[in-house]
Design goal:
This protein has 86 residues and is an all-alpha fold. It has helices at 4-14, 17-27, 30-42, 49-57, 61-74. The protein has one domain (4-74): Annexin V, domain 1, CATH 1.10.220. It contains five helices and no strands.
Length: 86
């Protein structure tokens, strides 16, 4: 394994559940991980407002902007409205 992306793929393939979640949280850059958590909270039939409040409420304005930037990069190829943080 020469880069972190191979390790992330291996973790996703070999692990599952809470252990996988915890390992991925430690391996990924902080704002990239939080951006994916925002995506997961918004995707689907309803919005997980508690998760959004925890993610965005515990970060200051500058950190929320970094989460926004990471979200827009990670999910630029997704369908609307999930391709833009707004």
């Amino acid at each position: 394994m020469t880069d972190g992306r191979c390790l992330l793929k291996d973790v996703k393939k070999k692990m599952g559940g809470d252990l996988e979640f915890a390992v991925l949280a430690r391996l990924r850059p902080r704002y990239e991980f939080l951006a994916d958590r925002v995506y997961a909270a918004c995707k689907g039939l309803g919005t997980d407002e508690e998760a959004l409040c925890r993610i965005l409420g515990l970060n200051d304005n500058e950190e929320c902007l970094l989460i926004r930037d990471a979200y827009n990069v990670l999910h630029a190829e997704d369908d609307e409205p999930y391709n833009d943080f707004r």
